[in-house]
From TrEMBL, chain A:
Species this protein is from: Paenibacillus lactis
UniProt xrefs under PANTHER family: ABC TRANSPORTER, ATP-BINDING PROTEIN
SMART domains from the UniProt entry: AAA
Domain of life: Bacteria
Family statement drawn from the similarity comment of this UniProt entry: Belongs to the ABC transporter superfamily.
Stated name of the protein: ABC-2 type transport system ATP-binding protein
GO MF annotation terms: ATP binding
Keywords, comma-separated and alphabetical: ATP-binding, Nucleotide-binding, Transport
CDD domains, alphabetized: ABC_BcrA_bacitracin_resist (cd03268)
Domain ABC transporter residue range list: 10-237
InterPro entries, per database record: AAA+_ATPase (IPR003593), ABC_transporter-like_ATP-bd (IPR003439), ABC_transporter-like_CS (IPR017871), P-loop_NTPase (IPR027417)
TrEMBL record, chain B:
Regions that span the bilayer: 21-40, 111-133, 154-180, 225-244, 251-271, 302-322
The organism's place on the tree of life at top rank: Bacteria
Coiled-coil parts of chain: none
Species the sequence originates in: Paenibacillus lactis 154
GO molecular function, one term: ABC-type transporter activity
Lineage: Bacteria, Bacillati, Bacillota, Bacilli, Bacillales
Protein name: ABC transporter permease
Pfam family, one: ABC2_membrane_2
Keywords in alphabetical order: Membrane, Transmembrane, Transmembrane helix
GO cellular component: plasma membrane
Amino acid sequence: MNDHFSEIVLSVKNVTKKIGRKWIIHDVTFDVRKGEIFGFLGPNGAGKTTTIRMLVDLIKPTSGTIKVCGYDVNRQQEQALRHIGSIVENPEMYSFLTGWENLEHFARMQPGIDRQRIAEVVDIVRLERRIHDKVSTYSLGMRQRLGIAQALLGRPKLLILDEPTNGLDPKGIKEMRHFIQQLAEEGLAVFVSSHLLSEIQLLCDRVAIISGGRVLAVGEVDALISGSNDYVVWELKPAAQGKRILSGLEYCDIVEEPESVLDDNLLAGMSAEAIVTCISPEHTFRAVERLVASGVEVREVHRMNPTLEQLFLQMTEGESLE
Amino acid sequence: MSNLVPLIQNECLKIMKRKRFYVVLLVLLVLVPMFTYAQMKAAERSQEKFNSDWRLELQQRITDNENSLSSDRVPDEWKRYRQIFIQQMQYYLEHDVNPNHPNGVTFTREFLNNAISLFIPLLIMAIASDIVSGERTSGTIKMLLTRPVKRWKVLLSKLVALLMFVSLIVLSTFIIAYLISGLAFGYKGFDIPVFTGFRIVGSEVDMTGVHAVPQWMYLLMQGGLVWFVGICVAMLAFMVSVLVRSTAASIVIMMAALIAGNILTNMASAWSSAKYLFMVNLNLTDYLAGNLPPIEGMSLNFSLAVLAVWAVCAVIVSFSVFTRRDILN
């Protein structure tokens, strides 16, 4: 957990962006501190990539300021960008060069990066064996790793990764997560965007939730999620009797259409008999007691992770997701 | 400025590794022998016909052209062109100089006269057209512009690298043309006199300023003009490459402009304000040879000025767009 005294590396204040006649980003504000992994969570089209592009001066904000280590990204590009390593969307490298030549190319654009540093970052991302092959022969996972090597070259204080696990297999995702955590432990501030709540939960300390170009909430991941995970799945036998008892309890609501609140992953693992209820943790124990007392066999009680959509519903108080 | 050098190094490396320059050399190595062969055939034929007496041949050409002047079917503009040609050939004849002496140097001179308006610009486009748009198509522009380097420096390094390669292309065209044609015609011919300084007044040629220069010097003057055209075309292609996201579109736009220029030139147009278009001003070497300009009122200085203005505007547009634009994809 990061205390509030730790140094602010990235500060975004009242940033807006208008493209054509359309406002893409409305008043986005958040800070990222040293050593933390900051999640940027939102569905596709919420403005995540646009915001990231503004963080690295690919797009100029219409108003507001973005500061990295105290330097304004859009006014003092050279000083500010020195402290940022980034992958915006896909890690696109020159496919007609080798991995090593790519790194050399980017190293030349910044003073103070020697061969030794290049070898170091290659070592960090464990790409030694293929680094002298052409990038066109790399797999997606290797390109992703080369992208990170490129981002780390200049010893940045802030690492910006846009959907870093996109397109990776489960093993690759796990490795990537572990890797990002390691970097944060070494004092790097890491900014990660994602459209998957589970990924943010597993990876991040704090999160900003964005939808329709607005930041809905910023805070610790656990605090934002608590209160939204009131859904509990029950496997009871006999199911019909169990359901009758549960529906009789005033602190327990039966969810008739679980598809609307649970995501597909969870639904796939549920039996047809399963009952989904909305019940707080304090009341669950009493419900179990009642069921057991009535001779209902309680086979499984399972609290569910909320979906991103649910979280949005709760934050916007019923307004549907844009 | 010291950090500009590694950036230029990067850009040169990318041009080389993309093998675009090799393609240019390959095109030259394939096409120049073809032109040489064609030229050789023509030389053989005239040799048979005139028993290698070039005076006879030249006299024949003058007579042919004179005959066609009396025909009603020949348009007036062509007549003017032929009258001028006749007067020049007579000048060569009077001074006992063969204007088409077959040798490597003369071939190179003739080849460059023909290549300046389309062939060399085309070779330059092979490199210039995707120098910026290529980075956008591949997405690498994001990696390039998120470095702690100001955007104008990134663009300037690309422009400098491009101009270096333009110079290299012009130089290689000269060298390859000379070396290959020399195999067929011999490598001599540097000190043959060539007349320059013809001034065209109406349909008459003013001979007062005409003087002979050795062919090597003529070649040098020509080289300078070809290089200048190359630089201007490169800057225009550079601008298009900045403005257009797709490389294909960038090539098509420049090609269309160049070909339009060639068509307009051949129309010997009555539309006199067309002379302010850059593409009808590319035939700078014609002024050296004393050919009739495509539109009345054009002169070497005029064409140089028009090209320079276009090129400078292109560079200004490139930089102001590139440094301000949002990179949205």
